[in-house]
């Protein structure tokens, strides 16, 4: 009978880190107090105190945890902590996130008198900020946008400290922070302030599926010059710029540099990237889900345009019902409740991997038409598994690295974390010529191949 040696105890958390985490916990408690307090002035006090405590606590903890230590991926003890190994803390976090999304989508609608259901006491403290930015009171979506942007910025700062040794990750993280703050939060608000349509220039069809629906296009065209430009921008970005940029840079130009969904996954979701399922069964489910979802939204868009061209007589109410069904099942349940709520259980790219139609579109372009690949040198691989562990898209990178095979997968978002985690410099992100794109590295040694066999 053999006994495995006992695992060493987890290192103690320094008192200074505990103090900053206590500040974050105090901020979460203040949010609960804002929810429970019926007095409007105290609601504002609790709400803004909560944001101050959560923001300052997160920044201070990130600096102490990563800014004062050597930079790097730092896998240590991830599978031993309850917060990052599907333990009790992870499940509690997942339930809290899922509960927030359920309340946001189905229990916070405006009743017509400025009341927003269960989130009412969190929405109104933002009225002043919303009036200054958008020229109108806050609603549940402005609250969500504020929380979302704050999460990307705060956890983005954490990523900047953690990966400060890599110029690629510094620029990439700064990019998603910029696009979320500027293009997905401030600019749409300013457009509303000037009585223009709310428009997100960093989201395109088929991800922002309704931007090419006949009703949206018609409404924008009626708005005049800016509306015409918005329609032009959406069409060009979806059908011209996306193929061209993906040809040269792979899907990373969008999924890891621009997209708000990817931005949240790369910042707030970074502690959970190792949880993605690397099994072949998960890959089969990925194929079974993401491409049919892309086909569904393409079909709905085409049918709506045919319906529009025939004078709205072809489909009756069926076209609108299909669009609403898609918005509920995919736009709300999948991308929100599951896509973010399940971060601590299934990893940070559940939506991007299994449901996002934009990721499917970009993935097909990347796999079959792009110059992008991750080259490998199997002769240098020591099979440590660091690369596979950090892949949030469920790719078993180690299997490619051992054989010196280039990684050309539709799922890969080009985050570059596998290359950063590799201690031997085996993996390199390249935008090379298409000739020889699928060939294994000539540097792999015959001995390595025999060992793998």
TrEMBL record:
PROSITE patterns: 4FE4S_FER_1, 4FE4S_FER_2
Domain 4Fe-4S ferredoxin-type: 372-400, 404-432
Any one Gene Ontology cellular component term annotated for this protein: plasma membrane
Keywords, sorted A to Z: 4Fe-4S, Electron transport, Iron, Iron-sulfur, Membrane, Metal-binding, Transmembrane, Transmembrane helix, Transport
UniProt-recorded Gene Ontology molecular function terms: 4 iron, 4 sulfur cluster binding; metal ion binding
Transmembrane segments: 46-66, 87-107, 141-161, 173-194, 226-249, 289-308, 328-346
This protein's record includes keyword Membrane: yes
Protein name, entry field: 4Fe-4S binding protein
Species in which this protein is naturally found: Hymenobacter properus
């Amino acid at each position: 009978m053999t006994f495995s040696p006992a695992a060493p105890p987890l290192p103690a958390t320094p008192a200074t880190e505990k103090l900053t985490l206590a500040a974050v916990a105090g901020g979460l408690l203040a949010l609960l107090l804002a929810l429970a307090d019926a007095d409007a002035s105290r609601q504002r006090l609790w709400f803004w105190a909560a944001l101050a405590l959560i923001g300052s606590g997160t920044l201070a903890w990130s600096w102490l945890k990563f800014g004062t230590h050597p930079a790097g991926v730092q896998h240590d003890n991830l599978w031993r902590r309850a917060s990052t190994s599907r333990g009790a803390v992870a499940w509690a976090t997942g339930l809290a996130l899922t509960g927030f999304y359920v309340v946001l989508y189905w229990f916070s609608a405006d009743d017509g008198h400025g009341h927003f259901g269960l989130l009412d006491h969190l929405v109104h403290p933002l009225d002043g900020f919303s009036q200054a930015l958008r020229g109108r009171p806050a609603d549940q979506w402005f609250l969500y946008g504020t929380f979302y942007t704050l999460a990307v910025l705060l956890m983005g700062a954490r990523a900047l400290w953690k990966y400060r040794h890599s110029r690629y990750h510094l620029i990439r993280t700064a990019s998603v922070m910029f696009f979320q703050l500027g293009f997905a939060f401030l600019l749409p608000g300013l457009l509303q302030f000037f009585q223009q349509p709310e428009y997100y220039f960093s989201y395109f069809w088929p991800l922002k599926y309704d931007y090419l629906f006949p009703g949206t296009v018609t409404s924008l065209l009626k708005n005049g010059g800016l509306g015409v430009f918005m329609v032009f921008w959406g069409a060009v970005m979806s059908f011209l710029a996306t193929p061209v940029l993906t040809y040269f840079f792979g899907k990373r130009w969008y999924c890891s540099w621009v997209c708000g969904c990817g931005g949240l996954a790369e910042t707030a979701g970074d502690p959970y990237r190792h949880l993605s399922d690397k099994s072949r069964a998960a890959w089969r489910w990925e194929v079974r889900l993401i491409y049919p979802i892309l086909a569904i939204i393409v079909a709905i868009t085409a049918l709506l345009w045919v319906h529009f061209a025939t004078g709205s007589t072809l489909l009756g109410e069926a076209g609108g019902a299909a669009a609403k069904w898609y918005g509920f099942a995919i736009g709300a349940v999948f991308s929100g409740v599951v896509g973010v709520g399940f971060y601590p259980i299934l990893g940070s790219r559940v939506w991007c991997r299994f449901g996002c139609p934009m990721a499917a579109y970009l993935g097909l372009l990347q796999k079959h038409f792009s110059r992008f690949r991750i080259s490998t040198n199997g002769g240098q691989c020591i099979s440590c598994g660091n690369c596979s562990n950090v892949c949030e898209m469920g790719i078993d990178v180690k299997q490619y690295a051992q054989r010196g095979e280039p990684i050309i997968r539709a799922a890969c978002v080009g985050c570059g974390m596998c290359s950063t985690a590799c201690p031997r410099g085996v993996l390199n992100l390249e935008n090379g010529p298409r000739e020889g794109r699928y060939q294994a590295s000539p540097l792999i040694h015959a001995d390595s191949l025999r060992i793998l066999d």
